[in-house]
Amino acid sequence: MPSGTARKERAPMHGSSDERTRTGMSPESLKRAFVDSMFYVQARYWEVATPHDLYMAAAYTVRDRMLERWIRTAETYRKADARTVCYLSAEYLLGPQLGNNLINLGIVDSARQGARDLGIDLQEILDQEPEPGLGNGGLGRLAACYLDSLATLSIPAIGYGIRYEHGIFDQKIVDGWQVEDCDLWLTNGNPWEIPRPLLRYPVRFGGHTEPYTDEHGRFRVRWVPELDLYGMAYDTPVLGFGNDNTNLLRLWHATAGRSFDLQAFHKGDYYGAVNAKVGAENITKVLYPNDEPEVGKELRLKQQYFFVSCSLQDMVRVHLQHAPNLEGFHERFAAQLNDTHPSIAVAELMRLCLDEHGMDWERAWEITRRTFAYTNHTLLPEALETWPVELFGRLLPRHLEIIYEINARFLDELRMRYPFDPERVARMSLIEEGPVRRVRMAHLATVGSFAVNGVAAIHSELVKSTVLRDFHELWPEKFHNITNGVTPRRFIQLSNPDLCGIITDLAGPGWARDAENLRTLEPHADDAAFQQRWQAMKRAAKERLAARIREATGAVVDPQSLFDIQVKRIHEYKRQHLNLLHIVALYHRIKQGTDSDPTPRTFVFGGKAAPGYFMAKLIIKLIHSVAEVINRDPEVNQRLRVVFVPNFNVKNAECIYPAADLSEQISTAGKEASGTGNMKFSMNGALTIGTLDGANVEIRDAVGHENFFLFGLTVAEVERTLAEGYRPWEYYRSHDELREVIDLLRSGLFSHGDPDLFRPLTDSLLQHDPYLLLADYPAYVEAQARAGDAFRDPAGWTRMSILNAARTGFFSSDRAIREYCRNIWQVEPMPVSLAAGNGSVPAARADPA
Ligand SMILES: *Cc1c(COP(=O)(O)O)cnc(C)c1O
Questions:
Q1: How far apart are CA 614 and CA 374, in angstroms?
Q2: Where does this protein have coiled-coil stretches (predicted)?
Q3: How far does residue 568's CA lie from ligand 1's centre (Å)?
Q4: Which of 58, 279, 500, 767 is deepest in the core (most CB within 10 A)?
Q5: Which atom of ligand 1 is nearest to the CA of 649?
Q6: What distance in angstroms lies between residue 148's CA and the mean position of ligand 1's atoms?
Q7: Given a cut of 80, is residue 597 above it in pLDDT?
Q8: pLDDT for position 848
Q9: For a substitution probing ligand 1, which of 134, 487, 568, 574 has the most ligand atoms within 8 Å of its CB?
C-alpha cells in the first residue's frame, strides 16, 4: 500500500473532464470514478483510506459499469418476453467478484493503469476481497460456472438461491487438526449486492389444512399456517464475457413476518413471540457444511422450502405481468433443479396453481411437470435425500398432502402398467415405507420433471442402471447426460494470466468464448521454443504457489520438483488416504535405500472436512503427521515434501490449479459423479493420475490415453470384487510393501509414539475398506512410478502437458450450457445491445423487472 502522502500528491482532481464518470472505461475515467466512489459512496477521504476502503471504492466503480448493462438486459428480456432459465440451487460457490468482473468488462488493463497512476497496486486491492463461500464444493462451484456461461451465451437466466449470512466455514489448522471458524463474508459489507427491500414474499410453515367449497362449488384446501416470515431479495449482477448481457443472481434473506407467531402473541407471551421472530431470521443464518452425506436437519428443510417458495412466487409475479393467469408458465420458464435440494418446488408450484390460482389438478400437474428439469449429482446411497414424513407434515402439511396425491395418482398408473409387479411399484413410490416413513426427494424430482440428467457420461449411465433404474425403464426418453464444465474465464484467464497470454498469442482473443480454439496449441506441442515458453509459464505458477504455501504454512517447497496435487473436499471415497499410502511407501523406500524413483516431488493437499465427519478429519491429521516426519528428515526432505494448504476455497484454488504438474483424481470407480477439479487441472496443463470415474473417463478420451496415467478397478470390477466378498486383509498379507506401509502407520512413527491415533483409519482399511484402497494400491503405486519416470523427460512431459490443455476445450461450461439449452431447456440466446439509448433519460417509466 502506498503511503498517505504518496496518495495525497497523486490524488486527482475531479470535474475537469466531460467524460461520463459513471460509465467511462478509460484509465482516466476509471480513476476519476474511483476517487468519486471513495468520497460519495464509501464516504472516506483519500488520505485516511484503508486497503478495505480502496477495495470498496474499486468495487463500486466496477459495479456502476455493470449496472448500465444489467438494466439494459432486463429491459431487452422484458420487451422480448423471452423464455427464461431459472437455475434453482441451494449453493453458489462464487469466489471473489472483482477480478472476474474486470475481465468480463474487458477493463483489466485500464484498471491496472488507473490504479498505477494513483500509486496503488491492483493486486493488493483484489487480495482484500472476502470470498462469498455460499457453497460446499463442486456442486456450488458448478452453479457459479453455469451462471457465467449463461450470461456469456446471452441466455435469459436468473439464478435463485439463499443469501447465507455465514457461508462455508473457514478452516484453520491447529496441531494438525481441522478447526472450524465462522465465515464472516458480510461483516465489512458486500458491494456487489443490491438489496430489494420491496421485493418480499411471505413464506409459511406449520399449522394445518382445512377443506372448503369455493363460490363455484369446487373442492378446495386452505392452509392455516402457524408461522410466517418473509424472504427479501438481494440481487447480484452476473456479467457475460465478450457481450453486453448481464444476468441476475437473486438470493433470498429471511426476515420475520408481521404475524410471526400469532399464538404466542394471543397468549400474551411477548418474549416467546420475539423468540419466534429471531428463529425466523435464523433460516438464512448459515450454510450446512456437509458436502454429501444427507443431514436430515429440520432447519435444512426449512431453508430449502424457504428459497424455493420465494423463487417460485417471484417467477409467478413476473409471469403475471404478461399473462392473466398461470397458463403458459412452463413456456415462459425452464426451471433447473440443481440436485434434490430444491425439489420441494414440485409440490410448491402445485400448491400455487391449485390453492392460490384456483387451477384444477390435471392442468396444474401438466404445467408443473413441464416446468422442471432435475440434475442428479450423486449415487451414494447415504447422500440421497429423504425426509421423515412426520417432520415433513409438521413443517409443510399442505405439501405433504399434495405429495400424497401426486403419489396416489402415480402409483395407480404404475399398477395399470405393471399389474403383476407390486415390488416395482413399491420401489418407485415417492414414500419409503418402514419403521420411519420417508419422502424420497429424488423420486419427487424425477416424477415432477420433464428431464433428468446426470453430470458425466459414466454417471448418467449409472443413474439409469441403479438409483433411477425403474424410472428409466418407464420413461427412457426423459433421461439425458450433460457432462459438467468449468468456465475458462475464471479458471484460465483470471487464474493463469501467463497461459492466457500464450493462448491469445496463438489463437487470438476469441478462445475464451470458444474453448475449442484451444486446439490451436496442438501443432506446437513439440516445438522447442514453444515448449520453453510453456515451461516458464508453469514454473511461474509453481513459484506463485510456493510463495503462497510459505506464507500460509511456513513450509518451503522447491518449484523444480514435481507438484503432485490433490485438492477437493476430504472424503473417504475421494481417497486422500490412498495418496498418503503412496507417500509413506516412497518415504519407506528412501529410508530402506531401495528407492528407484528419484524424481523429487512436492505433495500438496487441500480441502475441508465436514465438521461431523470423524474419518475425514483424521485424514487431515494424518496428512499433517506424515508431513511433519517427512519434511523434518534430512535424509528424505531433499526428495519429498508434503504440505497442506489450509482453507481450500475458490481464491486459493485459483492459485493452485495452474501450479500442478500432476492432478490426483483417484476416487473409487463409480463414486465421483463427475468432478470438475479434474477439468480445471487439465486445462492448466496438469497431467492426471486417475481412475475410470466421473469425467475422468471423458478427459482421458479427449486428451489421449497416452497422456493420462490410468490405474485401478473399473466400475464393473469394483462391483464384482464386492460381490465376491472383498477381503482387504488378504491384500495386506500378500503385498509386502503395502503391509509395511500400514504397519508404519500403526507403529506410532507418525503420531509421536501413539499407535492408536490412526487406528480408526487402519482398522477400517483392514477390516472393511469400503472404498477398495487396498485392492487399488498396487496399480496406483505402479501408475505413480510411470508418472515419476515421465517427469524426468521434460520435453516429453511438456508435450503431454500442452496436449492436455489443447484438448480440454470440451470441458468449458459454455459447451455444457449449450447442451442444456438445446437438449433440455429449448431456449434461445437474446443478445443485448448497449448501443441504443445509452444513458438517456427514459420518456416514460417502465415496469420494474
Ligand atoms: C472445483 C472446485 C471443487 C470441486 O473439486 P472436485 O475435485 O471436483 O471435487 C471444490 N472446491 C472448490 C473451491 C473448487 O474450485
A1: 32
A2: none
A3: 5
A4: 58
A5: 13
A6: 16
A7: no
A8: 45
A9: 568
**In the chain, what percentage of residues exceed pLDDT 90?**
88
Q: Is 621 a catalytic residue?
A: no
Q: Which residue has the cell 419409503?
A: 432
Which residues does 324 contact at the CB level (< 8 Å), separation at least 6? none
Tell me, rounded to whole angstroms, the distance of Cα 552 from its chain centroid: 24
> What would the DSSP string read from start to end of 421-477?
-HHHHHHH-SEE-SSS-EEEHHHHHHHTEEEEEESSHHHHHHHHHTTTHHHHHH-GG
Rounded to an integer, what distance in angstroms lies between the CA atom of residue 799 and that of residue 204?
A: 60
DSSP state of 522: G
Q: Residue whose CA is closest, atom 5 of ligand 1?
A: 677
Residue 5 annotated to the active site? no
Q: How far is the CA of 13 from the centre of ligand 1 (A)?
A: 45
Burial class (CB in 10 A: 0-12, 13-18, 19+), 26: middle
Instruction: Check residue 398 and give its pLDDT.
Output: 98
pLDDT band at residue 271, thresholds of 50, 70 and 90?
confident
pLDDT, tens only, 183-199: 999 999 999 999 999 99
pLDDT digits 0-9 by tens, 731-750: 999 999 999 999 999 999 99
Same fold, 138-482 and 495-714+773-811: yes
pLDDT tens, position by position, 220-257: 999 999 988 999 999 999 999 999 999 999 999 999 87
Confidence of residue 269 (pLDDT cuts 50, 70, 90): confident
Listed in sequence order, the residues at least 6 apart from 442 whose beta carbon sits closer than 8 Å to its beta carbon are 340, 343, 374, 376, 384, 385, 467, 468
Q: Would you say the pTM of this structure is higher than 0.85?
A: yes
Among the atoms of ligand 1, which is closest to the Cα of residue 665?
7
Q: Is 78 helix (H, G, I), strand (E, B) or coil?
A: helix
- By three-state DSSP, how is residue 778 classified? helix
Of 61, 676, 798, 808, which one is the catalytic site residue?
676
C-beta separation of 704 from 807 below 8 A: yes
Return the domain boundaries, the chain: 1-80+105-130, 138-482, 495-714+773-811
> Does residue 568 carry a catalytic annotation?
yes
The dihedral sign for the CA sequence 804, 805, 806, 810: positive
Sheet holding 431-432, edge to edge: 386-388, 438-440, 431-432
- In tens, the pLDDT along 665-719 reads 999 999 999 999 999 999 999 999 999 999 999 999 999 999 999 999 999 999 9
Residue 439 amino acid letter: V
Q: Are strands 449-454 and 246-256 parallel, antiparallel or unpaired?
A: unpaired
Q: How far apart are CA 108 and CA 745, in angstroms?
A: 50
Superfamily of domain 138-482: Glycogen Phosphorylase B; (3.40.50.2000)
- Choose the catalytic residue: 568, 624, 639, 746: 568
Q: Is 574 a catalytic residue?
A: yes
pLDDT tens track for 491-544:
999 999 999 999 999 999 999 999 999 999 999 999 999 999 999 999 999 999
Taking domain 495-714+773-811, whether its CATH number is 3.90.79.10 is answered by no
Q: Tell me, in angstroms, the distance from the centre of ligand 1 to residue 141's CA.
A: 7
Residue of 69, 443, 617, 680 marked catalytic = 680
